[in-house]
């Protein structure tokens, strides 16, 4: 259940880059305390979900087919 | 010798010799120097092969010529593989060449590659400052290779081991053969411009210079140079260097090494995450402690402000209020005094005061004051207002 929810959200990379941004913002001198608290909460959420992804991810391989005007992505069956 | 019963025509001789040569001599390798090379409009090439004593005419048909990376130069020492034949219209025997190699194996290929390399170098496509940085993290990895090839298998193995959360998008292409260069070039273009991937690996397993030839061709090199996302060239084994390697932003010795370059190890990501968490926590506690300090400072300031500004002002206000009140009272008492003297004055002027002194006020029935003798004829009834009331009167007559 948790994995499904996490999968629908941002990817691991997106979470990592958002987290980097959160830390950068938190380290600013001029930040408002209320804003800081919100950012912190958001950050904690990303850390938790990133951990879920890290521990449960399975490789997904897709194939890009079609021409530039009509690109499609299809799942590759078994890649091993 | 004198028997002339059998006379051959020129054509018959040539045909017979042709048959003789073609049936008795297998394909053979010949080493020699190119004396002349001509490409006819038909696409077939004609040349002469020579050594210091002798020469042979050679022909190479279009279909075989098309496998060459470029036309060899005159004077080049080459090895050809072909079969002997005879060109009947001229009665000249020739070698029908099927394959041609620069002496030294793959020299011709290297030469052709060098030619394209110089061209690209001249355009600045090999410059170091053109190279893009590897993205710090990638959402999706693009792979241009043959779907059934070992290169893809190797790449997927590495990605699965190190960073299985990475999405991999493959663009299938032939990686050798006549149409390979065009296909690879197109695959790189489509995938790199699809905005679906942050990084592209162009991959192929190892092989001979000829096998890897497509990756030395101009269209492939140009597609790599034009890619909006960084490209890792992961072709062949370590010893092979192709033009794709030179143009790409990164060169990996093998497809597996390319994948290792492309995706971070999960352990690193976990460490990174822990580091981020720590920084976040540290930043937050620094922040709250800063705020707490600020709050204390502000409270102190506020109290100082009260001592320095508010309290004196309050005192001033209180004092002013007192002064105001006494001033008001002074004004009131003056006014009250003035008022009572006015009252006295009014009393003096009032007719009632006069009456109290013994005067009376006669008035007729209409209330009009009767001031003269004529206004009180004899027999008239009138009222007389005295100090404590009114009496009715009747005039008896005027006194003399």
How would you explain this protein's 3D organization?
- The complex is a heterodimer of chains A (80) and B (400).
- With 80 residues, chain A is an alpha+beta fold.
- Chain A has three helices and two strands, in the order H-H-H-E-E.
- A two-stranded antiparallel ribbon of chain A has the order 1-2.
- In chain A, helix 1 packs across helix 3 and helix 2 packs antiparallel against helix 3.
- Chain A starts with a helix and ends in a 5-residue tail after the last strand.
- With 400 residues, chain B is α/β, with parallel strands linked by helices.
- Chain B is 43% helix and 22% strand.
- Chain B has ten helices and 13 strands.
- In chain B, the strands form three sheets. Chain B has a five-stranded mixed barrel with strand order 1-2-3-5-4. In chain B, strands 7-6-8-9-10 form a five-stranded parallel beta sheet, with helices on both faces.
- The mean pLDDT of chain B is 86.
- Chain A binds chain B through residues 11-14, 16-17, 19-20, 22-23, 26-27, 31, 33, 36, 40, 43-44, 47, 50-51, 53-54, 57-65, 67-68, 71, 73, 76, 79-80, and chain B through 136-139, 142, 147, 152-153, 156, 159-160, 164-172, 189-191, 193-194, 196, 266, 269-270, 272-273, 276-277, 279-280, 283-284, 287-288, 291.
Oligomer state equals heterodimer
Termini Cα gap of chain A: 27 Å
How many helices of chain A?
3
> Hey, roughly how much beta strand do the residues of chain B contain?
15-25%
Q: Name the structural class of chain B.
A: alpha/beta
Largest sheet of chain A: 2 strands, antiparallel
C-alpha termini separation of chain B: 223 Å
Largest sheet: spatial strand order of chain A: 1-2
Sheet with most strands: strand arrangement of chain B: 1-2-3-5-4
| Largest beta-sheet details of chain B | 5 strands, mixed, barrel
Q: Are there runs of chain A of 5+ residues with pLDDT below 50, and where? A: 1-6
Name the biggest interface: A-B, 39 and 40 residues
Approximately what portion of the residues of chain A adopt beta-strand conformation?
A: 5-15%
